[in-house]
Amino acid sequence: YLWPSPMLDELESLLYEITPGTTGIASFIQPCDTFSFASTGGSGPTGRSNAADWIRTAYHDMATHNIADGTGGLDASIRFAEERARAENVGDGFVNTLNVLAGFATRYVSIADTLALGTVMAVEFCGGPQIPFRGGRVDATEPNLPGVPEPEQTLDSHIATFAKQGFTQDEMIGLVACGHTFGGVQHAPFPDIVPELNDPNSTESVAHFDSTNTHFDNNMCVAVLYESSHITTSVQRNRVYFWHHSKSTGCRF
Ligand code: HEM
Asked: 179 CB under 6 A from ligand 1?
């Protein structure tokens, strides 16, 4: 650490100088079911949460990484409409995330760093572990090549995609299981997986991965093992078979 470092000072302030009731990053994920997307009302029991949107956004942004040639990665390329228009990036959670987090970027802090910071904070503040954080990511100047896994693809294809991103099979399972401890599948982008739920507690018809969808825990795995996940019981389970990846390898988290 070389003093002074305006970047580290700003990141440290965003991460640690949290005053209840202020407008810092934390205020958008505390309580953990906060959802503030203006275009969908953002209030009431929508079934969605900023925390889930932020975590999914960070993964979709980094999933373009190709470990072989060093391209892609967590570089905020998801902010380009061309990247978001791809089938692998269906849904409005990315715009929701950028609307909030990109606003914390400055001349010293990149948008990519705010995406990483938002994810670290969402996981930690909502029951998960403290994740070591480093700053200094550089924002992409153009969209990256595609690379996000999709639910219809085969297990072999997912293993290959995660390997391209630099992950082992164990890491893939850990990431999918831990990522999906938050949120769920929405009707709007996935009408053939999730029907209209007509649920007053999930007005955007989100079929949650487990019943504690704004809290980091292993209930998603428990739900899969006992087949009580909303997803596996109520929708076409063969199209969301990544749950079965976790099942076959024992949900190690
Ligand atoms: C084989 C890999 C994966 C597949 C096929 C997959 C697929 C999906 C699908 C179809 C959804 C529903 C999205 C929506 O309705 O808007 C979803 C949601 C989500 N995914 Fe994944 N995912 C994968 C890996 C991951 C990883 C590695 C993470 C994070 C580490 C992650 C985090 C999330 C989160 C947080 C949500 C909930 C979003 C929300 O409720 O707003 N996913 N995923």
From this structure: yes
Q: Which ipTM was obtained for this model?
A: 0.98
Q: Distance (Å, rounded) from C-alpha 29 to C-alpha 31? A: 6
Q: Which sequence spans correspond to the domains of the chain? A: 1-148, 153-253
Tell me the CA distances in angstroms from 159 to 52, 182, 187, one per residue in order: 23, 22, 27
Give the ligand 1 atom nearest the CA of 186: 15
pLDDT of residue 226: 62
Give the residue, 241 or 223, on which the prediction is more confident: 223
Q: Which CATH class is domain 1-148?
A: mainly alpha
Picking from 221, 195, 82, the residue whose alpha carbon sits closest to that of residue 141 is 82
208 lines ligand 1 (CB under 6 A): no
- Residue whose CA is at the smallest distance from ligand 1 atom 10: 151
Residue among 149, 151, 221 at smallest CA distance from 180:
221
Residue nearest to atom 13 of ligand 1 (CA): 185
